[in-house]
């Protein structure tokens, strides 16, 4: 327990000193505040002056903002692991009572807890999402995506600089919800290979009052996300050996 507390304090110091890590931690909170206080009046202003009904796209906007949360949480965890690997801290933790396995479990709990907590807070407080049971599907898939992002950076980046470069690739993941929201059937399934497509599809079907299709999309997405997570975990463990 003392070792975990020491790790937590060390994380807090690292995050406080690194603007990028601080932005990854505070970014989701900024998104929630933005959704709560900026989007509604801004959408009213746009509709009044330009006649464009932004309110009709609140669900899509919510999906985009929600998907940002696991990407930021996973990026923060991955960069922390890269920092500690560069400083040879992982080898140090391996010979302590924490052990290397304990360190990795601790490190991966971070994005899980952040994704669950911040995504749930978004659903409850943003004001642009509908709180319903299908939201749980979305949170589960987002949590797995946060883990995959952290493992991806730790497995494929040689150092923190490469990690920052690889994290930019996450921008491509926003193609998933765009295709899910706007591509007509059957072309929308072109995006099925993109992990973010399935949580977006499940949520959009749920708010369209199609619960069975939403659940079906969640199950397909869950299977694909677990396959992806298994692949990322194998690559990560291979890199760590």
List keywords for this structure.
241 residues, Fluoroquinolone transport system permease protein, mainly alpha, transmembrane, single chain, membrane, 78% helix, transmembrane helix
**What is the radius of gyration computed over CA atoms, rounded to a whole number of angstroms?**
19 Å
Number of strands: 0
Report the mean per-residue pLDDT as an integer: 88
Query: Strand-residue fraction?
Result: under 5%
Contiguous low-pLDDT stretches (5 residues minimum) are none
Topology pattern, helix = H, strand = E: HHHHHHHHHHH
Shape descriptor: globular
- What is the domain total for the residues? 1
Largest sheet: none
Derived structural class: mainly alpha
Keywords: Membrane, Transmembrane, Transmembrane helix
Transmembrane segments: 20-40, 60-82, 103-125, 137-157, 169-192, 212-233
Protein name: Fluoroquinolone transport system permease protein
Structure description:
The chain crosses the membrane at residues 20-40, 60-82, 103-125, 137-157, 169-192, 212-233. This is Fluoroquinolone transport system permease protein. Keywords: Membrane, Transmembrane, Transmembrane helix. Helix 4 (58-86) runs antiparallel to helix 10 (197-207), helix 7 (134-156) runs antiparallel to helix 8 (160-167) and helix 9 (175-182) packs parallel to helix 10. The chain has 11 helices and no strands. By secondary structure, the protein is an all-alpha fold. The two termini are 26 Å apart. The model has no long low-confidence stretch (mean pLDDT 88). The chain has one domain.
